[in-house]
Amino acid sequence: MPHNPPTMEKAFNLLRALPRVCLANLKDHNWRKTTKRGRAQHGGDKHGAGNKGGGQRQNFMRIGYETGNNPFYKRFPCENYYRGQHLKRQYPPLSMLDLQKMIDTNRIDITKPIDLVAIANTGLYRMFPDQHHFGVNLTDEGADIFCAKVNLEVQWTNDLVIAAVERCGGIPIPRRMIPPPDAIEFYTDPAKRGYLADPEKISQERLVLAQKYGYELPRIEDDPDYEMLTERKDPRQIFYGLEPGWVVNLRDKVILKPLEEELLKYYNS
Amino acid sequence: MLLKTLPKLQIQNCRHIKKYSTAIVAQTNQNEHLQQRKLMFPPKYQKPRQVWIENLDTIDERKLGLLDLHPSVFAVNPRIDIIQQNVRWQTLYRYVSYAHTKSTFECRGGGKKPWPQKGLGRARHGSIRSPLFKGGGVAHGPKSPTTHFYMLPFDVRLQGLTTTLTVKLAQDDLHVVDSLEIPAEEPSYIEELVKSRNWGPSVLFVDVADVMPRNITAATDTIKHFNLMPAYGLNVYSMLKHDTLVLTKPAVELIEDKLLTHLHKNDTRFVTSKYKVNQV
Q1: Mutate: best of A13, A106, A117, partner B, most B CBs <10 A
Q2: The complex's ipTM?
Q3: Closest residue in A to B91 (Cα–Cα)
Q4: B41-77: per-residue pLDDT in tens?
Q5: Of B246, B248, B77, which Cα lies nearest the Cα of B164?
Q6: Gap between the Cα atoms of B174 and B161, Å rounded
Q7: CB pairs under 8 A between A and B
Q8: What is the pLDDT of residue A166?
Q9: CATH number of domain containing B170
Q10: In sequence order, which residues have a C-beta less than 8 Å from that of residue B250 and are 6 or more positions away?
Q11: Coil, helix or strand for B228?
C-alpha cells in the first residue's frame, strides 16, 4: 500500500499552520559563500602565485610549449595509424548493458522488432550521418546479464553478442540498405547473421554458435511471439511498415504511394 | 529546522485549522461522492492527495465530490528555495535596467588640463571631469540598457510549478470548482462569495480555455484583485501573488497532464540543453 513519507506529511501539516507562503516571505537556500583568501600569518603573501610575471597573472604557457624547443607534439609530422581515419565508416558503440537498461526503463518496446529507429527514439543514442556514422555497434559489455527476448537489427556486432541474444530466444540481423563493397562480405555472412545471407545457412550457424558457447537453442517455431521474432524487413526497406518509394506527408498525415509502373519497378529492384 | 522551532504551534494550530481544510489525506469512505479518476502514471509509493470539488453557483459552499490529485504534482517536497528561484527568475528575465551614468569622456568639457602639472602646490589633474571632481564622470557606473535576462533550468521551472501547487494545497489556498459559471454578472455576488468562503482578498481563477464564461468575466472585470487566467498561463509568480487559487476540474486535469508528461519525459536533451536566444 503506498503511503506518503512521514517527513512529507509533517511538512504539509506544518505548512498548514504557518503563515501563507507569498511573495514577501520567500527565501533562497543558503548557498555556500565563496571563500576569501586567508587573513592569518601569511595572508599578506602572494598565495603561491609568485611575484611578478606570468605565474602571478595566470598567463600560463600554452599546453605543450617547451620554451623554445621544438615541442614534442610537433616533432613527428604525421601518424600513419590514423591515415584515412576521416573516411572510415564509424559505428558508435552501444553496450548490451545499455540496451538492457533501455528495455528495463520502458524506453524500448520488446513486443516489436527493434531497429535503429527504436534505439534512436530513446533519445539516449544519437547518430550523426555527417560524421560517417553508419549504424550501431552492439558491444558485448553486459552480455552475461542480457535477458530480453528481442528481434534485434544492428549494423555491427560480434559473435558473443549474437550468442547472448539468441540464448534468450531472440534474433539479431545486421542490416544496411546498400552495403559498401568492403562490407558485402559481412552482410552476406550467415555467421554474422547478415541480412543478405541465406536463411537456411543462418539456421545452421545458430546451431554452431550454440554449441560453441554451450547453451541450448530455444525453439522459436514453438514461441508464441514467432511472428514478431521472424519479422524481417525487405532488403530495400528502411522503416517497418513503410516501403521504399512512399512519401510521408506529416502535415496532412497522409502517405503518398507511387502508382507509375516505372517508379514501382525502380523502387522494387 | 522548522520542526524544531515550532513544535507546539504545529499541534495547536492544526486542530483548529483542520475544520476549514480543503486538503485531505485519502481516508474517506464517502464513495458515493468520490470522483473516480484514473491517474496518469499511477504513483507507486505515495497516496494520491484529495481535494473537495466545490461549486460557484451559490454563495453557500456545497461540496460536490472528492477529487484525487497526483502526488508527483500536488504532494512534492515543499521547497521554498525552489519557489524563490522561480519568482526571482520571473521578475528578472523581463527586467531591463535603464539606469545610466556618464563616464569621464562622455561628460561635456574637461578637455583642457585645469592647471599646470607642477609649480602650483596643487594636486595634479588632467581633466575637471575625472571621477574625483564634482560634476565629473562616474567610474564603472550603470549603463543603459542593461538586460537581466537569464533562463532558469527546465527542471527547476517544472519543480517550481509542482512545489507551488503543493504549497497552495497544503495551506488550504487551493480550491477546485466544477466550473466558473456564476448566476449573476454583478461584482457584488462574487465579492460576497469570496468573503463568505474566507478566500482572502485576492483570488486567481484558472480555467482551461482563455475564453471564460460571460458572467464571471463581467463580474471580475472591475475588481482588480480577482483575476482570470487560462491554464496555459499558470505561473509561480501569479499563484503566489494571489492569496487563493481557484482551479476548475478540467484545468486541474490539464495542468496535471502537462506536468506529468514533462516529469516522465524520456528525451530531455532539447529542454535541458543550453538556451539560445534565437531558438524557437
Answers
A1: A13
A2: 0.81
A3: A23
A4: 998 888 899 999 999 999 999 999 999 999 999 999 9
A5: B77
A6: 13
A7: 94
A8: 84
A9: 3.40.1370.10
A10: B207, B208
A11: strand
